Amino acid sequence: MLSLLIGLTQAVQGPLDVYGDWVVEGGRGTVTIARCASVPEAQDGTPCGVLTSVPAEAGPEGQEVIGARLLWGFEEDGQAWGGGRILDPEEDKTYRSKIWREGGTLQVKGCLGPFCKTQVWTPAGSALE
User: Fold this and answer.
1) Closest CA to 115 of 22, 93, 105
2) What are the CA-CA distances from residue 53 to residues 28, 67, 115, 126 (Å)?
3) Using CA atoms, how far apart are residues 58 and 97, in angstroms rounded to an integer?
């Protein structure tokens, strides 16, 4: 019965359901993704992500970036949100981005030219952390 409930929960969460709190790959922080209603250039409800926490070992420099907008500018692209931007606060650079939910994880792709890298983010508070 439990496996049936888990299956139903995953079925309801489609690839465009990216909203919530996510732990960045490697545990380098937590990002909250919500609809961009408060962002003037994206008031259409597309996803925006804000860094909401960093590990204590990140020190004062890590604490300074809490609240930074890391994800924005997405458009629905079939089974994903594409055409967006992602900020790497460690390098202070932005990249083209595409995000989508796959099972219980969030796939976050960042691209510079033809070169792309995908990270797997896990739900905050999950056993996958």
Assistant:
1) 93
2) 9, 8, 28, 16
3) 25
* Single-letter amino acid code for the residue at 88: D
pLDDT above 80: residue 12: no
DSSP assignment of 59-128: HHHHHHTTT-EEEE--EE-SSSEEEEEEEETTTTEEEEEEEEEETTEEEEEEEETTEEEEEEEEETTSTT
Measured CA to CA, the distance from residue 39 to residue 73 in angstroms comes to 10
What is 15-123's CATH topology? Lipocalin (2.40.128)
Nearest to 41 by CA among 69, 67, 19, 16: 69
Rg (C-alpha) for the chain, rounded Å, is: 15
**Domain residue ranges of the chain, discontinuous segments joined by +:** 15-123
pLDDT digits (tens, 9 = 90+) for 60-116: 878 888 999 999 999 999 999 999 999 998 889 999 999 999 999 999 999 999 999
Strand 93-102 and strand 115-123: the pairing is unpaired
Three-class DSSP category at 33: strand
